[in-house]
Amino acid sequence: MERSPGGRTPAVYVHTGGCHMAGKRANGVPREAAVRALAEGVDACPHCRPDTALGVLE
């Protein structure tokens, strides 16, 4: 997951592992945390599409 600049929000994007768009503010999380973040409205990276990889589609 990618944190916001300054930490104002817990996460701004969910990425798949190895996504080239995940910056220095990204860190790995367990699958369950990524699915929960997506369900709670954290945006999926439009490049790596973790929602598709995790089977969580809107």
From TrEMBL:
It holds the Pfam family DUF6233. It comes from the Bacteria. InterPro entries: DUF6233. This is Uncharacterized protein.
